[in-house]
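Per your request, structure below.
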């Protein structure tokens, strides 16, 4: 049932009603895709699109985890449950393709063809291109609901495809760059589409196969749509509940199959590693620690200087700078609140979706609300809320829907309360200001891509291929770090790349959620086994901890080999039986009080 106030082509003279996928090649629908393609060319480009170009993934902050997750997953057995289990990456604790943020949707899509794909195949570049195109597509659909001006809608679309926190994510965390899911949820909320239940179910299922944070945000907007339908009595309550239950069951089943509910996936995270938003986020252009391909992008704004907060829990995840053009647009929109809207333009049902976005924004602030360095409000922390926040460690990300809805609301006010030509001219002015404010970014992005270049493993010794032929597991010793960030160790990154390309399981994995106590216990047990010379079968050891390495150099079996190859400390059981290792001497023993007694 269509709402009386729902925007439609008849309500907006000259407007093109949002078209389905099969109509994307019509004249008015190709233009937003060209906007997305242009933004992709400026901020990304063809180097990332090549399926065998992976250097930019291994030079970055989080992407080695995502890439390794896919490389391990393609060797995982099909006949397993959940289907998304990833047993070869971090076998000390249960692992899944969801826990490595490797975009399960594409991992499941390409896994059947793994035998035909290049050994270094990556799909993240294709995903980035798709994100730019879909971001522009859904932004344009939203804007065409209340403006018939093509120039206005295209200018507005540029604001969505150049959102700073979206651009930051395309390299830092490609799975989280799927912001088009948020825009698609807004589009579905404002639409009068038939088979609403099927559309929401499909969107939630896709979101669950992209990233948990995006799924949670889409669920929030879906909840707003359910409340709106109930409040406006568009559907009987019993029918609404049945549809909501069916959608929930379908989504949970897909999540279960993808590996959301493996043991340890909902453990509480360390309080010190959580991130919350700061109320000054619209004016905060960063603090020089926003990583991109091994570089720090500090010049996000030409207008405002970068600065650091002193408040707790504020990091790159809380970055959501508006930009000078958006700030100018917001001032103009606020000034237009007193003016009446054009009578020929239908109003949109903002209340319920605004409530949902404000709720997510409040959640992103945590229990301490800061304005810059000043504590504005302290709220009591309830035990149940603490557990929920520990699941979503980076709560600050939940401000994204409010950011997009604020932009959409400003565009709506300008489009509906100014003459068409005046609104289009104002939009073009704001776009010029926004582009000037972000003028340093394209150069920074391209320099980062050039610096990343091709990646060559430092493991150049002939010993590594022989180890790959004789051993099926790598046990990482001393790899436990508070928070589980073992991937920060450059030696671990190199070893993970070696293991993933040679179909070797590795004991320690960097997962989105992991039981750190279980990891620590497994690590302590492995050090004890080394001390007692009880080596694990079919396994060689990579030692990252200095105390454990001093122990290993002094206590080993006569048939074992202990030494350093290409900067990596190894203990190789039965190493004397490997011809390549025979010419390598044992490492010198340097006794130390912390070795432990035998």
């Amino acid at each position: 049932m269509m709402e009386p106030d729902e925007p439609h082509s008849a309500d907006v003279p000259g407007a093109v009603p949002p078209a389905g996928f099969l109509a994307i090649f019509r004249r008015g629908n190709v233009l937003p895709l060209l906007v997305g393609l242009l933004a992709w060319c400026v901020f990304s480009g063809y180097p990332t699109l090549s399926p065998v170009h992976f250097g930019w993934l291994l030079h970055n902050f989080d992407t080695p985890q995502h890439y390794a997750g896919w490389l391990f997953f393609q060797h995982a057995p099909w006949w397993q449950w959940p289907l998304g289990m990833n047993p070869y990456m971090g076998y000390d604790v249960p692992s899944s393709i969801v826990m490595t943020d490797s975009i399960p949707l594409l991992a499941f899509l390409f896994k059947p063809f793994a035998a035909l794909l290049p050994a270094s195949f990556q799909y993240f570049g294709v995903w980035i291109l798709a994100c730019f195109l879909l971001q522009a597509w859904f932004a344009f659909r939203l804007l065409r609901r209340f403006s018939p001006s093509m120039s206005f809608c295209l200018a507005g679309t540029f604001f969505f495809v150049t959102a700073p926190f979206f651009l930051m994510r395309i390299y830092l965390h490609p799975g989280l760059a799927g912001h088009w899911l948020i825009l698609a949820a807004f589009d579905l909320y404002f639409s009068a589409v038939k088979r609403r239940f099927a559309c929401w179910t499909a969107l939630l299922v896709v979101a669950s196969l992209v990233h948990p944070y995006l799924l949670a945000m889409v669920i929030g907007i879906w909840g707003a749509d359910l409340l709106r339908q109930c409040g406006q009595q568009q559907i009987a309550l019993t029918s609404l509940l049945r549809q909501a239950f069916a959608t929930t069951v379908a989504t949970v089943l897909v999540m279960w199959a993808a590996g959301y509910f493996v043991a340890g996936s909902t453990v509480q995270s360390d309080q010190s590693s959580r991130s919350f938003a700061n109320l000054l986020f619209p004016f905060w252009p960063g603090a020089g620690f926003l990583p991109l391909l091994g570089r720090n992008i500090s010049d996000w704004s030409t207008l405002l200087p970068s600065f650091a907060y002193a408040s707790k829990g504020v990091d790159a995840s809380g970055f959501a700078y508006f930009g000078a053009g958006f700030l100018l647009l917001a001032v103009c929109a606020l000034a237009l609140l007193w003016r009446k809207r054009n009578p020929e333009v239908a109003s949109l049902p903002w209340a319920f979706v605004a409530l949902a976005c404000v709720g997510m924004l409040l959640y992103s602030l945590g229990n301490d609300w800061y304005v810059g360095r000043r504590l504005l409000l302290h709220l009591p922390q309830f035990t149940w809320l603490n557990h929920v926040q520990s699941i979503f460690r980076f709560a600050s990300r939940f401000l994204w829907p409010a950011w997009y809805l604020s932009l959409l609301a400003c565009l709506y006010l300008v489009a509906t309360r100014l003459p068409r030509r005046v609104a289009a001219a104002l939009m073009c002015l704001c776009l010029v200001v926004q582009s000037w404010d972000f003028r340093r970014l394209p150069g920074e992005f391209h320099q980062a891509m050039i610096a990343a270049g091709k990646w060559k493993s430092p493991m150049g010794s002939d010993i590594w291929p022989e180890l790959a032929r004789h051993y099926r597991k790598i046990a990482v010793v001393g790899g436990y770090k508070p928070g589980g960030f073992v991937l920060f160790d450059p030696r671990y990154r190199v070893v993970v790349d070696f293991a993933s390309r040679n179909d070797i399981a590795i004991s320690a994995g960097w997962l989105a959620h992991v039981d750190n106590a279980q990891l620590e216990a497994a690590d302590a047990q492995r050090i004890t086994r080394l001390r007692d010379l009880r080596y694990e079968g079919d396994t060689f050891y990579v030692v990252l901890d200095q105390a454990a390495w001093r122990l290993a150099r002094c206590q080993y079996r006569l048939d074992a080999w202990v030494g350093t190859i290409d900067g990596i400390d190894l203990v190789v059981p039965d190493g004397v039986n490997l011809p390549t290792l025979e010419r390598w001497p044992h490492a010198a023993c340097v006794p130390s009080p912390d070795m432990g007694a035998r």
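The two ends are 78 Å apart (CA to CA).

Regards,
D.
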